Input
Amino acid sequence: HHQILREQYLGCVQGLALGDVLGAPYEGGPLERALWWCLGKTKQGLPRWTDDTQMSINLLESLLDLQGIDQEDLAQRFALSYHWTRGYGPSAAKLLKRIRKGQAWQSASRAIHPQGSFGNGAAMRAPVLALFYPQDRVQLIQATERSAVVTHAHPLAIAGATIISLATQDMLHRRNLEEILANTLSFCRESGAQAFVKKLEAARTLLVKQGEVKAPDIRRQLGNGITAVDSCLTALYLALRFRDAPFMEMIECAIKLGGDTDTISTMAGALWGAYNGDESLPPLDFEEKGHLHQLALAVFERMQTKIDAQLAS
Ligand code: F2R
Ligand code: MG
Ligand code: MG
Ligand code: MG
Output
């Protein structure tokens, strides 16, 4: 039994943002990269993060202020902090602009995709949910679905987000490889997320082969795209493969895959940080690093208070 540490909370949030910052310059094709070359620094010259970290901050702040998932509040925070320079997905951008104009998130989302978006935008913010629901698996699954549907109502987007939030919970508890793969598989089976089952089996096979596995195999078998199906298990694979190796080795591998490099690094970075803690992360500075540190600390202290209250009652 492992007692979850403060540095794991800090590591999860800092690993998420650092993965985003380091992956962002390599996301997409030559056009997207050229654009980020122009947009990727703050006025002070620090590397900027993208929509992945922005939406994770929105979720953290909403959870802290409202003590749980409040979908209206989340929709408003996502919409009000939307800015085109953060590189949002095309449907996500449309959705957030509609909400900002006053449309309800439910109808705005259905107007863009009747079944909801199956992009990875709900999964990229899902690690922070495990920080609020570190113990209870069922509560975490419910919270992930309620957080996801505000922007990503498609079952594949919800399943991808849940795979990531559950894996983050497992990493906080420092569960072993076989346990994490088994937990992920049982979630995929019980939720009917068949599309993920095949990729999970492929990830297991690749993990057994360890260092012999090269980027083209990972890309072909697990994916490197902006949909949940093409990125969530890639991130989980990287975090499991590199969790006892340096953070930068994992990020270099994510960048070699190409495609959705910021988001795969965001999710893998959060998982890696939840396992290893912030002291093991490279000491790089980036946009609002101190604010992210304060948010992670606030969540940790909130959880400590909750645990103390439970013990006292
Ligand atoms: N958008 C980017 N980066 C620029 C493009 C990168 C490049 N072209 C590449 O392929 O790598 N980054 C940010 O977007 C991703 C998160 O996306 P999110 O929030 O899920 O966006 P969206 O727009 O909701 O979904 C992504 C696209 O998937 C297709 N799609 C989704 N649901 C669909 C449905 N039901 N039917 C048909 N198509 C659907 C659409 O093309 C969406 O635009 C992250 O990478 C983040 O960093
Ligand atoms: Mg992004
Ligand atoms: Mg969307
Ligand atoms: Mg991305």
Q: What stands out?
A: The mean pLDDT is 97.
